[in-house]
């Protein structure tokens, strides 16, 4: 292992050759299907933020992690010296090795975690996989058969596990204090993005810059779009796809299943969310 100092030096050189870039000071760690794309797009409205285009998967993919911090840096966008670089990789939140690795890079980093109702998130997770398989003409299992096995909630279903927020959060809190982690309410961000984004701005100690007029509701889409210096952009159409129909009895079972895990999460973060 190299010491941090030598890594930083090499990183500086590499960065210089790439004009200018910085390791992130902010990471959006998840959750998958929580609204991470919307969050990073909205955060990009702020002039002090430089956002990485792609999901970098540095801390969770061994093949990337082995390339070291210089490679990570090379994946970052151009940034002015007074800008904060941010990247988002939703898989970080549920990967148990990631918190330690991020802490080793920078114990003072600011982490953003965007969460939605865990049942909704499972359905959304399923829907994404469903559409991917449909596109590739692969077979897919109906949602009921992955959610339930022998009449019980199927704990082996990975999407279900990803929604056990308290379990993953415990990993993060081993390395970071709660003051370093801001939880964005993903359901609120969709419903009314401006107030949620003001909270993010405050947490990051950014100069107040994001305005209500940066957001406008697109009635056709049923979602907010962004307006930035006269330019308008909406998120990709795959965001906000209709969920599959799930038998009410199974939906009820899911909500019940998450009741206790949710309570544990609320205790962990000292805050409640409007999840049923
Ligand atoms: C969920 O995932 C975690 C970490 O990947 C694992 O330790 C745990 O056993 C899983 N839980 C269930 C119920 O499958
Ligand atoms: C609103 O959404 C529709 C449907 O996606 C799109 O065609 C249209 O360009 C959007 N209009 C604005 C002003 O964003």
Strand arrangement, largest sheet?
Answer: 2-3-1-4-7
Which topology of the domain at 4-118 and 163-236 does CATH recognise?
Answer: Rossmann fold
Which structural category do the helix and sheet elements fall into? alpha/beta
Bin the strand percentage. 5-15%
Mean pLDDT: 90
Report how far the terminal alpha carbons are from each other.
46 Å
The radius of gyration over CA amounts to 19 Å
Give the low-pLDDT segments.
1-15
Largest sheet: 5 strands, parallel
Quaternary state, please? single chain
Helix content: 40-55%
CATH architecture verdict of the domain at 4-118 and 163-236: 3-Layer(aba) Sandwich
Order of helices and strands: HEHEHHEHEHHEEHHEHHEEEH
Q: Please count the helical segments.
A: 12
Hetero groups bound?
A: 2-acetamido-2-deoxy-beta-D-glucopyranose
Q: What is the highest CATH level, the class of the domain at 4-118 and 163-236?
A: Alpha Beta
Query: Tally of extended strands?
Result: 10
**What general outline do the C-alpha atoms trace?**
globular
CATH superfamily of the domain at 4-118 and 163-236: P-loop containing nucleotide triphosphate hydrolases
